[in-house]
């Protein structure tokens, strides 16, 4: 439980606020004052060329996607599940397509391949109407190669998405172990360490700080200082921020605190096993973050999709003519959408509600601390009542009920039948 920090600070003396006064001296050589020059001139604008123009839409889509990834996720509640399985979900998802980061990230490739389809259709139409010289051929081909390679493309997309979901599931399970381990660790400290010492409070603070530090370690751009400033003391926070590996620094705080508590060997061994669980969580999460799906597999899927849609208008021209434009649009939007979902969930931690999970752990520990003394008081009262009832029982017989526990809401003659 975080101890409240005092807002009282001792103001420094006036002598420390201002430097010592020194007499003003005129320089021997006049300094050159260049009023017309800016000491920090602005950097010249980037030259506009064809590549920069072509990158406008992809850069815009990437910026939106990265900004959406930084949004905090929420844990589902009952109302969210009701909306999630609602019969109107299909219409709601369709109407929100333009605000979906997956759909917006598909804008560059879909526009590119639809433009290629328009160019191919325009060229074939110009050749058909003799608007070009006769030696220009119509771009057409047999659809047999596509019929043979379509199953291979489908398998590539399925395996790619399945591999990404396996990583997502592995990351979710790793964080489930971290959260459950944090709850169990804090519970055992509350029960094992009976005295409400400063060291016990600090140890609980370090335990609660670990999942927050791990979350900030895994998600780029996290503000670990802002997340931990109300949980750790200033000196502890400064040391954590100065370390290269913040979660392992928190573990060092936990290990040193356990040694200073002078616990029994069995209790100390049990608590140190929870530290091992933290180390395992760090190892699994770092492997998922730093080791992606084999890059050759991702490149093969991407190249297959690009070549497929570049030649799709040529394959479909004899059967569809100008319908190759909407056909290419629908095919690119569908297949690239599947591939994009696989790429997004390949890095699972920005997709998980880690902030909510850390807050949930903090609330659980706070509730445990508040109810600990009340529960202990109630149990002690029950023990005293049982002892006093035995003393007042006549002739050594047990009190009413014969020492047998009666299930609530059940009468004594409920089993007569």
From TrEMBL:
Pfam assignment, any one: Bestrophin_2
Keywords: Ion transport, Membrane, Transmembrane, Transmembrane helix, Transport
One Gene Ontology molecular-function label: voltage-gated chloride channel activity
Biased composition (Polar residues): 1-19, 406-417
Region entry Disordered, spans: 1-22, 388-417
BP terms from Gene Ontology: regulation of photosynthesis, light reaction
Keyword DNA damage: no
Membrane topology: Multi-pass membrane protein
Protein's cellular compartments: Membrane
Gene Ontology CC: membrane
Cited InterPro entries: VCCN1/2 (IPR024701), YneE/VCCN1/2-like (IPR044669)
Source species, domain of life: Eukaryota
PANTHER family, per the entry: UPF0187 PROTEIN YNEE (PTHR33281), VOLTAGE-DEPENDENT CHLORIDE CHANNEL 1, CHLOROPLASTIC (PTHR33281:SF1)
Name the UniProt record assigns to this protein: Uncharacterized protein
């Amino acid at each position: 439980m975080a101890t409240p920090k005092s807002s009282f600070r001792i103001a420094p003396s006036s002598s420390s606020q201002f430097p010592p006064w020194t007499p003003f001296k005129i320089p021997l050589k006049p300094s050159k004052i260049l009023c017309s020059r800016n000491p920090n001139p602005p950097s010249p604008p980037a030259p506009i060329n064809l590549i920069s123009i072509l990158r406008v839409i992809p850069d815009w889509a990437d910026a939106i996607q990265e900004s959406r990834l930084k949004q905090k996720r929420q844990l589902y509640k009952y109302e969210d599940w009701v909306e999630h399985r609602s019969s109107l979900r299909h219409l709601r998802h369709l109407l929100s397509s333009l605000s979906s980061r997956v759909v917006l990230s598909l804008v560059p490739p879909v526009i590119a391949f639809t433009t290629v389809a328009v160019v191919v259709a325009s060229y074939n139409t110009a050749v058909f109407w003799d608007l070009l010289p006769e030696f220009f051929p119509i771009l057409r081909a047999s659809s047999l190669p596509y019929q043979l390679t379509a199953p291979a493309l489908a398998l590539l997309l399925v395996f790619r998405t399945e591999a990404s979901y396996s990583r997502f599931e592995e990351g979710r399970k790793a964080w489930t172990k971290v959260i459950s381990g944090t709850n169990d660790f804090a519970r055992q400290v509350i029960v094992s360490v009976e005295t409400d010492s400063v060291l016990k409070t600090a140890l609980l603070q370090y335990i609660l700080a670990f999942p927050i530090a791990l979350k900030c370690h895994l998600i780029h751009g996290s503000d670990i200082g802002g997340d931990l400033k109300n949980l750790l003391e200033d000196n502890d926070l400064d040391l954590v921020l100065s370390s290269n590996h913040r979660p392992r620094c928190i573990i060092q705080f936990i290990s040193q605190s356990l040694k200073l508590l002078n616990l029994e060997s069995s209790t100390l061994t049990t608590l140190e096993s929870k530290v091992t669980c933290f180390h395992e969580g760090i190892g699994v999460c770092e492997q998922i973050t730093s080791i992606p799906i084999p890059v050759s597999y991702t490149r093969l899927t991407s190249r297959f999709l690009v070549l497929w849609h570049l030649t799709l208008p040529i394959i479909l021209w004899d059967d569809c003519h100008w319908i190759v434009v909407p056909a290419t649009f629908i095919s690119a939007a569908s297949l690239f959408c599947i591939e994009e979902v696989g790429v997004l969930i390949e890095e699972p931690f920005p997709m998980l509600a880690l902030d909510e999970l850390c807050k949930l752990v903090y609330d659980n520990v706070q509730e445990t601390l508040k109810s600990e003394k009340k529960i202990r008081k109630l149990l002690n009262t029950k023990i005293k009542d049982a002892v006093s009832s035995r003393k007042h029982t006549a002739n050594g017989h047990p009190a009413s009920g014969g020492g047998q526990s009666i299930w609530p809401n059940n009468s004594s003659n409920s089993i007569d039948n």
